[in-house]
Each structure stands twice: as structure tokens, then as C-alpha cells.
User: Fold these one by one.
Assistant:
Number 1:
Amino acid sequence: MLTKVITISTILSLTLSANANEDITPYVVGGVDSKTLELPWQVYIEIDKNGSRYACGGTLITDTWVVTAAHCLNENDLRDSFTAVKASQVTVYSGGIDRSNSGNQSSNSLSKLIVHPGYSEVTNTDDIALLQLSAPAASPAQAIKLMDNGLQIDADIEFKAGIGNNLVLSGWGRTSTDGQQSTDILQKSAVTGISDDSCAITWRWAGREANYICANAFNRGSCNGDSGGPLIWQDKNAISDRDLGYRLAGVVSFGHADQCAKNNTPDVYTEVSTYRKWLVDTIELSDSYQAPDPLFTQDIFEVSSEPMEEKSGGGLGYSLLLLLTGLWLYRRS
């Protein structure tokens, strides 16, 4: 089985035969255009595999370190085989919301790439990785603080209580539920956290709840190209702080294969609080970790609840499926 991925070079060639005016590139289903400087922690990642470029998202957690999904960095297409790409194959773009050539993103090379040692292609567990930039990301990019276990308890209480739209997802992944529509502008969408118990029942797993955060919303969610990108939660006790209480809670990992943003099946994100110690300890092997002290000024939770209209046209179909715990699912890369 193959991980569903966005191959930019293939997309470009198929676009010409499908619709000359339809640019098929990656974004979030049911999202809205983000504002300039609204999500300064978000980065766009391109991985070069023998001349083909694959797209994922990522999050700055210091000015030189990025968190992303481990499965984004697989050199192999085989589901049961993982070999990490080389750092030289990866470029990280930061500081802008337009991923097209006309955008103002800064290009960053890597000095190091580290995949979690427990990552499993078969079970999707430990789907997290770190990228070290060769130099600090240029302004206006800013890092965001990691969720810790104490705040995760607060978030879990919200998830169990069914509080709506308490998480924000963002990315350049595909936007329609059939995975055929897109834009070059970074999209964001509010989604609702799902309790661990409910998610375990839906996905028919047990004993791995601490590895994941689950979330969904009506006709809104992650899609191909969003993998590795951020899921943000707000600490309500820190709203008046410089960083407005924003915390990186999850990393986009996988969802149901029938369609993106499937209403009765939550998307799944790697739970950052579970891996916070690994992230900090790994960074400190190369550098001293210091939590960022960013200044955020925009309310990212101001998101329209109405999903974007799905437009017809532009044909790129997918049938690459991934099996996990008895259900078909796909990874959002």
C-alpha cells in the first residue's frame, strides 16, 4: 500500500489535460484564506525525490527547529518500508501565506533531519519528526510554544465536554472532500476536539489514545498536502499574554480514505504533549532548547463556520489506500 502524497511535478502535467485554468496544488477542506502574519509559525515543506517534489506542512517551535510528520520524510513509497530522506532533499519555506512563486516566503535549507525512533509505517504511531534549519528563520516567521501535559489535561476536558471550534488547523493541502481542488494561499479552519474514548471507538483502537488527538467539524478538516502541519489550541488562562495562549497541540497525521473531512470520522493528529520531552531532549543534543517568547496579535479563532464551496473541474483522482486497525485511512501528505 502506498501513502497518498502530493507530487507537484505530476500535478502540473495532469493540470494541463484536466483544465488549463485550474491550478491543482495543495489546501485545507472547508477553510478560509489566512491573513498575513496571522499564522507565523506555519511553514511549507518540499521534499525532492529524484526530481519529483512532495509537499507537507510544519511548525516552527524555535527559530531553527521545525516539527513535522515522520511519514512526510519517507524516501520509499512502500507502506511497510521506511527510509528517511536526506536533509539535502528538504527545503522549508517560511514567513508567508502564498506558496506560489509570487509569494514572499523565505527559503531555508536543513542541517539536520531527525525522525522519531519509534515511528511505525504500519501503525502510524510516533508519527513525528524534527528538522533543524541551517540558519534562523527570517522575520516575520515566529515560533510557537509546545503543548505540555498540564495544558493537555485542560484540553481533554474541553474535548470531553464537546466544546466546539476549540482547535485551529492550517495548511496548503487540498480543499475539496474529493481531494481535487486547491489554492496557493494558506488556509485555516476551526475544528472541534474529540474525546480519546470516542476517537478510540470510531477508529477501533485501544491503548494508544495518548499518541493522538482527534478532531472534526462539519465538512471541514485536513486533506492531502496538510500532513505535518499544526493543530493549535488556546490556553484560556493565557489569552492576555504576548502569545495569546496559543500552543501547538497536534501534528496532522491521517484520516479516512473515503474522502477528506469525512463528517462521521475524526481526523487524527500526533499529540504533541506526549512527545514534548522527546522534542526538547532531541533539540538539546544539538542546541540548547529555550521556549520561544513570540508576540502574536491576531485572533486565529475568528474563522467562518461555513465551509468553502466545492467547485467542479480539474481532474486528479486518487486510489492509494492505507490500512490501519481494520479501517481504510490515508495520511495527509
Number 2:
Amino acid sequence: MRAFFDSDLWWSFTRSRITVASAIVAFICIGGAFMAPLLAPHDPFDLASLQLMDAFTPPIWTAEGNPTYPLGTDDQGRDVLSAIMYGARVSLFVGFAATIFATCVGVLVGLLAGYLGGTADALLMRIADIQLTFPSILVALLVDGIVRAALPREVHDQIALFVVVFAIGISEWPKFARTVRGSTLVERNKEYVLAARVIGLSKAKIMLQHVLPNVLGPVLVIGTLNLALAILAEATLSFLGVGVPPTQPSLGTLIRIGNDFLFSGEWWITIFPGVALIVMVLSVNLLGDWLRDALNPKLR
């Protein structure tokens, strides 16, 4: 631990006020989301506690505001602040899970393509090139549509969260694969890899024990930036109505619901979830930008 606090990475982090502020905001967003059952003023999904008479209550600082609902309520009387905290849990879960899935697939494909070369490299990279010609959101929509058509609605609703994770993850893996392949092409001709071949280590051991640790730096940066993209992709799918089910609303679902009332004067129902999404994604993006610069030896 002491070595980390004495490292260049920590020094670079503490020298950037924007990065420190972004880290604090990201910590607050993630902490508030995953501790929503303890911190949220209300449980927005407890039907017994909903008061329809409190529907469309404006934020607390307006003349008709209610201190019980700091950011107001939606059309069903649900506390907007509590709904944002619970919705952020779903968005963050999908973002993290999809990024981890895309990272695992992309790193594996990149390692195999870069180390084996030849036909395997050509085949795997052409598959990645073909997928990169399609926008990620279209690939996610296609995967979700195929699953919806193949499974009964009841079954799909039960596994909808995992379908969204798979749909977003499978659309993002080529970015990791191309980066890892490029780094692997450089590493496979270095002396430590040649020495591992001479002593008779298998290709799998060389790739996993020797090459992989030396290509993870760029993967970490791409993963951080891809987390923000995955959260936005999930919000887009939910806004279009093909993401998580209404029983597990995310920030995208909340924005879609509030959009129906935006022009009737109940602006807070969609504005506050939208602001929460922007703040969360922006803080993660700024951390990713700092990490990219901090790990770039040319900028040291």
C-alpha cells in the first residue's frame, strides 16, 4: 500500500484537481447507488407505501414542494430522489457487468490473434472488423430482438437484465481485442517470451503468465472509458423500451417515463434522472482520460 502512495500514479492523481473532484463525484454516485436501501428516503418499488395523492409533487424549493420529497415525485407518487438512487444501481450493474464481459472476450480474442498469428489472426480480426462496421447500439438492439423473438415474454422478463449485459458486452469486445492484439504482437518477439519458449512452456502458459500481464495497461484505460459507454448504452436501450423491465427501472427508464410529462410542466421527473446520468458518465470519463494520460510513458 505504501508503494502505491509513493508511486507516480498517485502523484499524478493528487496533482489534478479535476481528477480528484471526478473521483469524489464517482464515489458518491457509486456509493449512493449501492447503498440505496440504507440511504434512500423511500422505497420507490414498495407499492404499499406509494401515495397517489402525492403524485406530481414539485421539488422542495418550489412553493408547492414537500420536504418529504426533496426532488419531487413522479406520476405514481414515487420519490424521484429514491428512484434515481435505485435506478443508478441497475445502470451501474449493467455497466460494470457488460464491461467485464467485453473485456474478457476481447482480451482472449486479442491474445489468440496476436500470439498465434497467421490464419487465426486473420479470421478473428476480420470478425472484429465486420462487427466494428455496425454501431454498438444497433448490435445490442439486434441481440435483444433475437432473444425476445426466441423466448417467451415471461422468460425474457426474468433474464432481461442479463440479456442487456450480454447485448452490450458482445457489441464492445472488438475494441479490447484490437488493442490487445497490437500489444501482443509487440510482446511476443521480446526476449522473455523467447526464453519461455526455449524452456518448453506451452503457448497457453506463455500467453496467460507472461504476455497478458504486460498488455493489461491499455486494457485498464479502455475498460474505464468503456464503462461510461456501457452505462449510456443501457440508458439508450431502456429509453427505447428494450432494456431492463419496468419492474427494475434504470436511469434510462426513469428518463423515458418522465419524458411523457416534460411538456406538461412536470419537468423534474425527467430532468433530475438525466442530470444524474450525465454527472455519473462525465465523472467516469474524466477518470478514464486521466488514467490514459497517467499510463502513457510519452507524457511523463
